[in-house]
Amino acid sequence: GLGFCSWKRQRKQLLHPLMANRSLCMAGCSQDASYKRLINEGEKKTVICIEGNIASGKTTCLDYFAKTTSIEVLTEPVPKWRNVRGHNLLGLMYQDSSRWGITLQTYIQLTMLDQHTRPMISPLRMMERSIHSAKHIFVENLYRSGRMPEVDYVVLTEWFEWITKNTDVSVDLIVYLQTSPETCYERLKNRCREEEKIIAMEYLEAIHQLYEEWLIKQTLFKVPSPVLVIPADNDMQKMIEKYEENRDRILTPYNIQHCL
Ligand SMILES: Nc1ncnc2c1ncn2[C@@H]1O[C@H](COP(=O)(O)OP(=O)(O)O)[C@@H](O)[C@H]1O
Ligand SMILES: Cc1cn([C@H]2C[C@H](O)[C@@H](COP(=O)(O)O)O2)c(=O)[nH]c1=O
Question: Which residues form a coiled coil (predicted)?
Answer without folding.
Answer: none
